[in-house]
Amino acid sequence: DSVSAGLAQDRSGEVLKQLLQQQGGEVGEILVASDDAASILSAVSGANEISPDLIVITGGTGIGPRDITPQTLLPLLHTRLQGVEHRLHDYGQNRLPTAMIGRPFAGVLGTTIVVGLPGSPGAVQDAMSALFPYLKHAFHIVRGGGHGQ
Asked: What strands lie across the sheet with 54-58, from one edge to the other?
């Protein structure tokens, strides 16, 4: 909420952008949504209209009263990627034990992989280390490609 209100800088978004670019990714617009379902849904729906390989959401995955990102977006995903979720949890907990109370999530929306991460720059850094370059394989598969390509 503080970033969407202009009271704080989006440090996690900048870290994410840099890390994705280091992986060879082309990063589109960084959208900031307030912690309410309508804003979150609007941002993800708008991003999904261009059918990107990946949408990453940072923030709102904790257990606070305004942390509603998982319950807002999970119903949209037609396929959960539990292996990705487990990888995020395991990797994070090995670095910070309190990561066990986080609720990162991953799944597929159309032909787009959607990943929800905690909002801290450190958690974003850990998540990108945990997922890449391995997640790149899923971009081809979700669009109907074979495993051997």
From this structure: 54-58, 112-117, 105-109, 79-80
pLDDT band at 2 (very low <50, low <70, confident <90, very high): confident
- Which structure tokens are listed for 123? 């958690």
Type of residue numbered 12: S
The pLDDT assigned to 5 comes to 67
* Token pair in block for residue 102: 């986080």
Phi, psi for 122 (deg, rounded to 5): -65, -40
Please report, rounded to a whole number, the percentage of residues in the chain having pLDDT higher than 70.
Answer: 96
pLDDT for residue 149 is more than 60: no
Q: What is the pTM of this model?
A: 0.93
User: Burial code of 83-110, b = ≥16 C-beta within 10 A, e = fewer?
Assistant: ebbebbbebbeeeeeebeebbbbbbbbe
Using CA atoms, how far apart are residues 42 and 47, in angstroms rounded to an integer?
8
